[in-house]
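re the bet — no i am not wrong, look at it urself. input seq straight from the record:
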Amino acid sequence: MIRFTLLLAAVLSGFGFFSCTKDPVIENQEELITTVEAVFSPEGAGQNVTYSFFDEDGNGGKSPVISASGNLISGLPYKVTVRFGNAAVVPFQDITAEIQTEAEDHQVFYVFGAGLQESVTQEYLDRDTNGLPLGLSVRMTPKNAGDGTLTIMLRHLPDKKAAGVSAGNPANAGGETDVEVVFPVRIQ
C-alpha cells in the first residue's frame, strides 16, 4: 500500500509540475503598412486606373500622399488587384505575399461611400483554404456615373462567417484593422 501511495504521489506531483508550464506565446508581429496600391485593370478596352496611398512614416507626423491616375468608366468591368507594403525599410517590403500565405487570418474590404454604394458590384476572385474570401483580387463593375469615396480596409482575424462578411461588408467582421485608406473616386 505504501508503494502504491508513493507511486500515486509521484505521478500526481509530475502532473502538477507539467500542468503549471505555459505554452509559449507566438505573436504575429504587425508590420508597418506605409503603402497601399489598388490597380483597376479594365476587362475590355481602356486604361488601368491606379489608386495609391503612401505614408512615409506610418501613423506619424507626415501626412500621407493619396492619388488616383484617372477615373473609372461606368459599365466597364475591372479586375482589381491590391498590394500592401512597407517602404520604411530598405529594401521595400512587399507584405502582400505574407497576407496571401495567411489568407485565413485576413480579408480585404472595398467599401464605396454614399452615392456610390449601390452603383458598384463586386465579386471576390481569391479565397482562403476554407473557400472564404481574401480580397487581394476582386472584380468590380461601376454601373452609374458619380463622385464619392472608396475605402480599402485590410482586417486581421475577421469573422469571415459572420453575416454579410463574405459579400464584402465589414460591419460584422470584427478583428483588427491593419490599414484603412479612403480614396476619392470619380466614375464617368
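see?? The longest strand covers residues 176-187. told u. also The two ends are 90 Å apart (CA to CA). so pay up
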